[in-house]
Structure to design on (412 residues):
């Protein structure tokens, strides 16, 4: 054995090997759950649950090694709480994330539902609070508050969730949005508490999420832009005097194939099919006449207008094709390139990475085989050696000199 004192000091590590100070030392994976085989590539006319498919889907996520699954919510979707409860019973380890709009439940009832889910899953429940990105969509369920007020309501809602889970004696409340007398102690969660995530990118979303959320979530953005957004969250968390900053969740729709070239071909073919689906009205939009009101979608459309490819693998054509609706930006490339691109975001501080493909079930299986192990291997390597591995250096993707997505795809 060589003398450990002879190991070069950190300063001697080549720049490519040094782990950035902003990097998260851990990463966990999320994927959204689908209830039936309908996709933006192959729309099937159903709004219902295909139980056999749903069972297969959530079990596949668990087998693929995903840590969490998001159960989304819309006025015409299945109920996210009921679906989350089913996910809990169909899996052993996967953590259901319930998308919840505060306008749909009195906070103490939501706290009770979440605590019940947490007990039924032995501590796996997570809640993702959605304040509502569209006035038109909110009005469908009788919510007429403007967005800033919706976020103020979310702030009060969060405080009440936490109190309902932890207060050991009855308490009363007379706030701006909620009032009640002598509640509690409430039904307790299985664990000490339940993680609360926030989605949204308006100023009000940052104010509430930075000060109060355990997790702050984003859709995929260029690295420099996301860096700025993470700095905003951190600054607000620090200003609120919090001991811990919110974890950062970032969401992509990867398009992978054996090589970068094959993946870019696939991406171009996919976007044509997705455009056809949206033109045919096969995916319902929550968008009013002036375009999307939620800042996340506005940003996605703006990135798409400014450029097609960013950084190592981020592709915006899919966001343009869907009108920036929901998570739509892609990561395109071989599994190695996409894993390296995910690590670029981990280097910026993301510790929760959501990946869901356009070919939903098949992609979940492929990600489990080809992407999750590569990212986890790099994280383990970093932990063991204190240095970066070679994956990011060896798979530049679109960072390679002279790269052109259309050329890579054989489009001209
Ligand atoms: C990861 C993630 C998941 C989301 N899931 C949902 C959802 O299930 N239902 C929904 O209506 N909005 C969902 N949203 C959208 C935003 O939460 C919503 O538009 C926000 O409340 C208001 O947007 P703004 O603050 O950016 O303007 C999600 C956002 C993110 C980042």
């Amino acid at each position: 054995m060589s003398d450990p004192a002879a190991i070069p000091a950190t300063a001697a590590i080549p720049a490519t090997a040094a782990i950035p100070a902003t990097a998260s030392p851990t990463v966990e994976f999320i994927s959204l759950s689908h209830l039936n085989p309908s996709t933006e590539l192959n729309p099937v006319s159903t709004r219902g649950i295909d139980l056999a498919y749903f069972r297969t889907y959530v079990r596949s996520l668990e087998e693929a090694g995903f840590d969490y699954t998001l159960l989304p919510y819309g006025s015409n979707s299945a109920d996210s709480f009921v679906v989350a409860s089913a996910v809990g019973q169909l899996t052993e380890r996967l953590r259901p994330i319930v998308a919840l709009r505060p306008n749909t439940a009195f906070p103490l009832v939501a706290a009770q539902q979440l605590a019940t889910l947490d007990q039924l899953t032995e501590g796996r429940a997570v809640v993702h609070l959605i304040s509502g990105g569209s006035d038109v969509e909110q009005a469908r369920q009788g919510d007429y508050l403007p967005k800033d007020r919706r976020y103020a309501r979310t702030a009060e809602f969060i405080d009440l969730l936490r109190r309902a889970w932890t207060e050991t004696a009855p308490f009363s409340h007379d706030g701006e949005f909620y009032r009640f007398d002598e509640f509690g102690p409430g039904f307790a969660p299985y664990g000490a508490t339940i993680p609360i995530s926030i989605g949204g990118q308006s100023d009000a979303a940052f104010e509430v999420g930075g000060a109060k959320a355990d997790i702050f979530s984003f859709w995929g953005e260029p690295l420099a832009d996301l860096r700025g957004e993470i700095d905003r969250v951190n600054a607000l968390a620090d200003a609120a005097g919090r001991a811990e900053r919110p974890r950062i969740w970032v969401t992509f729709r990867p398009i992978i194939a054996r090589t970068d070239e094959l993946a870019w071909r696939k991406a171009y073919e996919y976007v044509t099919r997705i455009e056809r689906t949206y033109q045919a009205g096969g995916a319902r939009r929550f968008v009013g006449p002036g375009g999307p009101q939620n800042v996340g979608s506005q940003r996605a459309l703006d990135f798409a207008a400014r450029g097609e490819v960013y950084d190592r693998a981020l592709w915006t054509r899919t966001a343009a094709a869907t009108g920036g609706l929901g998570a739509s930006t892609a990561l395109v490339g071989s599994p190695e390139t996409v894993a390296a691109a995910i690590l670029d975001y981990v280097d910026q501080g993301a510790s929760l990475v959501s990946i869901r493909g356009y070919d939903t079930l098949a992609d979940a299986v492929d990600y489990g085989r080809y992407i999750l192990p590569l990212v986890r291997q790099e994280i383990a390597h970093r932990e063991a050696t204190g240095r970066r591995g070679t994956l990011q250096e060896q798979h530049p993707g679109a960072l390679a000199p002279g790269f052109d997505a259309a050329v890579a795809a054989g489009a001209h």
User: Anything to note?
Assistant: The pocket of flavin mononucleotide is lined by residues 72-74, 99, 130-133, 199-202, 205, 217-219, 251, 294-296 (CB under 6 Å).
